[in-house]
Structure to design on (275 residues):
């Protein structure tokens, strides 16, 4: 029987809520099975105060992320492998918001696990030691919030068209067309495409495709549902064949292969917090 994993999450302080969705953590006393990291549009800062996991790409390459690293836009799945007891705290950023905290844009982060110092600077490498000395997630979240607020103030960022466009694609209606979204925001389709491309490196259509997949899989895993058709139709897939085709293209397997008890017990999705 697998050792228990202690999972916790907490919302950010009010000053960070336009950019940060949550702080969350996993901890175990020995190596445990880790989830398949599926394609998606999320961005997380991982800070491992125990041994970092490995990431195995679909072509078999073995990546060794640093103790402080990022996972951002992903167009293909990665298998994660524990190298010992798990202990990390992570920051989940709102869609495309991570670019307001450092040097890199999301186009620079696609399908990578970059060292966090590339984006946040050398202080990011020092955070893991500080977090290890703290007793629990609330204390670690407070430490991280202070760090992120310093980073944000250095950038003096305010929300842009790119932020509004990616937020609308991520949180909006699943069947919203790109033309309707451009009209809703008061921009042309060309301006919208440029704004989303600058923020993510993807076209609006490709970004929307990943968000739809993310929302559907997240719902199924949190609800522990094996009967996936109603959830797929509710999120804009035309029919069962369409969903299975998209699922296989993005996840490398069928919904039935993924939606099973061991997957329900091990994934990185969390319930949505109030905005």
């Amino acid at each position: 029987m697998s050792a228990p994993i202690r999972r916790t999450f907490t919302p950010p302080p009010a000053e960070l809520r336009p950019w940060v969705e949550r702080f969350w953590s996993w901890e175990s006393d020995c190596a445990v099975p880790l989830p398949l990291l599926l394609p998606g549009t999320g961005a997380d800062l991982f800070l491992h105060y125990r041994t970092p996991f490995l990431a195995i790409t679909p072509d078999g390459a073995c990546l060794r992320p640093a103790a402080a690293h990022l996972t951002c836009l992903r167009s293909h799945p990665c298998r994660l492998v524990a190298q010992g007891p798990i202990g990390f705290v992570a920051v989940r950023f709102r869609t495309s918001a991570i670019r307001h905290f450092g040097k890199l844009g999301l186009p620079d982060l696609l399908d990578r696990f970059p060292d966090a110092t590339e984006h946040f600077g050398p202080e990011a490498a020092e955070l893991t030691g500080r977090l290890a000395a703290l007793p629990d997630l609330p204390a670690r979240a407070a430490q991280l919030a202070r760090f992120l607020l310093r980073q944000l103030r250095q950038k003096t960022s305010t929300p842009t068209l790119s932020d509004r466009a990616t937020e609308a694609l991520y949180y909006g209606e699943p069947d919203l067309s790109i033309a309707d979204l451009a009209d809703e925001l008061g921009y042309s389709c060309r301006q919208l495409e440029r704004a989303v491309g600058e923020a993510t490196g993807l076209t609006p259509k490709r970004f929307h495709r990943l968000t739809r997949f993310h929302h559907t899989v997240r719902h199924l895993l949190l609800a522990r549902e094996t009967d996936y058709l109603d959830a797929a139709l509710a999120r804009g897939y035309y029919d069962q064949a369409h969903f299975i085709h998209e699922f296989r293209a993005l996840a490398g397997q069928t919904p039935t292969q993924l939606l099973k008890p061991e997957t329900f017990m091990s994934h990185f999705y969390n319930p949505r917090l109030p905005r």
About this structure: The radius of gyration is 18 Å. The chain has a mean pLDDT of 89. The longest strand covers residues 20-27. DSSP finds eleven helices and nine strands in the chain.
